[in-house]
Design goal:
Elements (H helix, E strand, L loop, with lengths): L2 H21 L7 H19 L15 H15 L2
Keywords: Membrane, Transmembrane, Transmembrane helix
Length: about 80
């Protein structure tokens, strides 16, 4: 199941619970558990949609051609002595 589809289902359930709690059809003692269930569903939907940040491994870049030429000249100068 896709994360977006799961979050959509959770949000629909949260809206249904919220409407049920606001309708007045439930007993007053059940109002708080229904609100907590709604909050739990909303937080779960946010958690499902949260994208995990991945650390990208950076490859070391190739040095520019000038640096390579300078290194070759420096190495050549040391071996010529």
């Amino acid at each position: 199941m896709n994360a977006q589809n799961l979050a959509t289902i959770l949000l629909y359930l949260a809206v249904i619970f919220h409407l049920l709690g606001m309708s007045g059809w439930v007993v007053a003692t059940m109002a708080q558990p229904i609100q907590l269930a709604t909050l739990g569903l909303l937080l779960t939907a946010i958690f499902v949609l949260r994208k995990k940040k991945r650390k990208t491994k950076r490859r070391p870049r190739k040095p520019p051609v000038e640096v390579t030429a300078m290194l070759e000249r420096a190495e050549g100068g040391e071996t010529g002595k």
